[in-house]
Amino acid sequence: MTDNANLYADFSVYYDQFCAEVDYAEQCEFAQRAFVCFAESGGRDYMDLACGTGQHLLHMLGRGFTGTGLDNSPTMLALAKDRCPKARFLLCDLAAFDEVAQFDLITCFLYSIYYSHPTSALRETLLRAWQALKAGGIFIFNTVDVGGISNQRSTLTSLSDGDAHLGFESGWRYCGEEEVLNLLLTTTRLSPSTVQRWSEQHIMTALSLRQLQAMLNEVGFDVTILEHDYQRLIPWGGESFNAVVIAKKSVAAVG
Question: Do residues 228 and 199 share a domain?
């Protein structure tokens, strides 16, 4: 049988397994190198937006930062709290947190910044990140230019769950509408007696890198765009579609 009745509406218990190929340690090492090179705020107070189960937080705490995590999923935050009991957590949307001049470093990896939709919500998220940083602090996140979205590519992950097989598929779809990017998620559970499937669609914001840079500048950030290479800090050449943004709150800024 096929069951589409929201079977895995909350698959947080499987989240880390589905993300097993994500190199959180490498991303956090990159964040620390960028922090040393770009930040001028003088502290080590850290916030992770869309923190999920706290993987980035755990690594950054191990690197001597204090930690705050934000997510809009209570179940994800519960797992993050178990993983990082010394961290502080906020349950809210990306465009709704209200911190002022609290952090030296903010990150938002795994393209999660684009959950802020529409463009007005994304701009609000960027503004709130600017407000939350101390003067000289930096905001790091990875980004994709909508011109590089391939509607044919999906990421497939599978794992075992007792006598059942779990499959997870995710992929972006862009239909040419200016700011609408669809993230399609499908989870399938195959057991000896049943086939169960859960599908979900998230609307994300589609932008070019040039549009994003202009928005960041309007908010007040000094912007450096790097190639999407976590091994090195390489200036973006303008040709690739994936990049890492280093957005700095000027040392002259008043929080």
Answer: no
Helices (H), 44-153: 55-62, 74-83, 119-132
Query: How does DSSP classify residue 92?
Result: S
What is the rounded distance in angstroms from the CA atom of residue 81 to the CA atom of residue 99? 20
Q: Do 130 and 245 belong to one domain? A: yes
Are 52 and 76 within 8 A, CB to CB?
Answer: yes
Q: Can you name the residues that pair with 116 across neighbouring β-strands?
A: none
Q: How far apart are CA 15 and CA 168, in angstroms?
A: 10
pLDDT in tens, the chain (255 residues): 333 333 334 556 666 666 667 899 999 999 999 999 999 999 999 999 999 999 999 999 999 999 999 999 998 999 999 999 999 999 999 999 999 999 999 999 999 999 999 999 999 999 999 999 999 999 999 999 998 887 656 777 777 777 888 888 888 788 876 789 888 878 787 888 888 787 778 889 999 999 999 999 999 999 999 999 999 999 999 999 999 999 999 987 654
Indicate if 120 and 158 belong to the same structural domain: no
The answer to whether residues 86 and 61 touch, using CB atoms and an 8 Å cutoff, is yes
Interhelix angle 55-62/74-83, rounded to 10 degrees, is 30
Residue 1: which residues within 8 A CB-CB, separation 6 or more?
Answer: 194, 195, 196
181 and 237 belong to one structural domain: no
Element (H, E) at 24: helix 24-38
Q: How far is CA 39 from CA 63, 107, 244, 247, in A?
A: 16, 13, 15, 10
Decide if 7 is inside a domain.
no
Closest CA to 139 of 41, 240, 239, 237: 41
